[in-house]
Write a structure and sequence with these properties.
By secondary structure, this protein is of the alpha+beta class. Helices cover 31% and strands 28% of the residues.
């Protein structure tokens, strides 16, 4: 099997950096921070910091928030709340934090909205196709293996209780994978910490998912570039003004493997049990919550151009679809997706 695995980085923040970071870090009222978070990287840009809040305090605060999210939702930590719930084979209520219960509740909400295109119980399929913590298989999974994994899935087999927060399995073998929503949640958590610390003008980006607040110096808007969906190429497809909201993007062009001259995307369709294979190559969703934007972007990407656009229009979702055509790329915006400029 010939494997070509590329790190997933779905949104280019290049324009934001070009227009906003000159001198950043030299002024005590502004800061730029970079680091690692939940298996990917983060970038934080902030202005007009309150007195007493410096780079060191922000770094410590952000790293603590990230560590807390990891301790709850990581599949790569055997002692995380999620890993312990997955290992639990009973059907009684399993006590969890309000954070985990809240994210699982939102995952169930998006699953219901999208007819199962978003399914947090897809972990066995993800592992089967080699995109989870387990080692990639030497051969493409058989139809029988796919069917067996699908038999162990279903968001309806996980119940959520908010008070006291707990999860319940209706099928002991079921497990949860929050990879398609956890980065968005982490963006919201870091943003919340910044707001509670008195920071009103900032951008938080984690693994391509973004949330902004306020403006840049001079009341300038945050300009965010949506990446051109071409493997091996770093270029900007479109630029949008993202004012005080969150944006998440899902695409199939950065994380995949090749076998027998065929490319297999990391995005798995829970209904077919296979990697997606349509001509929708990227979806960006703008929401107040990055948690919801993250899950919705994945779901619309799974659904494909026809069903995805139809759902977005029906529910007035702010989405930006990039579809591969014989002539290049076609762009379709729905809802109140921010005005954008297509780059040549």
């Amino acid at each position: 099997m010939n494997i070509n695995r590329v790190l997933l980085n779905k949104i280019v923040v290049l324009l934001c950096l070009l227009f906003s970071l000159s001198g950043c870090g030299q002024n005590s009222a502004s800061v730029k921070l970079q680091g690692k978070a939940i298996g990917t990287t983060y970038l934080i840009v902030a202005y007009n910091l309150p007195v007493g809040l410096g780079v060191k305090k922000i770094q410590q605060g952000v790293e603590q928030v990230v560590a807390d999210v990891n301790s709850v939702m990581s599949l790569f930590k055997a002692d995380s709340e999620l890993s312990r719930f997955n290992a639990y084979k009973g059907t009684d209520w399993f006590a969890v934090s309000k954070e985990l219960a809240g994210v699982v509740g939102k995952a169930k909400q998006v699953s219901l909205l999208t007819g199962g295109a978003f399914d947090m119980t897809v972990a066995q399929l993800v592992n089967l196709w080699g995109f989870g913590p387990e080692k990639r298989p030497e051969k493409i999974p058989t139809a029988a293996q796919v069917k067996k994994a699908q038999a162990e899935m279903g968001s309806d087999f996980v119940l959520v209780r908010s008070e006291p927060p707990a999860l319940k399995k209706l099928r002991p073998s079921i497990s949860i994978d929050l990879a398609a929503i956890a980065k968005g949640y982490c963006v919201d958590a870091v943003s919340g910490w910044l707001e509670q610390s008195g920071v009103s003008d900032f951008m938080v980006e984690i693994g391509g998912e973004i949330r902004t607040a306020g403006t840049k110096p001079g009341n300038a808007p945050w300009l965010i570039g949506v990446e051109k969906p071409v493997a091996g190429n770093r270029a900007v497809q479109a630029v949008i003004e993202l004012g005080g909201r969150a944006m998440a993007t899902s695409g199939d062009y950065r994380n995949y493997f090749e076998a027998d001259d065929k490319r297999y995307s990391h995005i798995i369709d829970p209904l077919s049990g296979k990697p997606i294979s349509h001509n929708l190559v990227s979806v960006s969703v703008v929401e107040d919550s990055c948690t919801m934007a993250d899950a919705l972007a994945t779901a619309l990407m799974v659904m494909g151009p026809e069903q995805g656009i139809r759902l977005a229009e029906k529910h007035n979702l702010s989405a930006f679809f990039i579809v591969k055509t014989a002539d290049g790329f076609a762009e379709i915006a729905t809802g109140d997706f921010p005005q954008h400029k297509t780059m040549k």
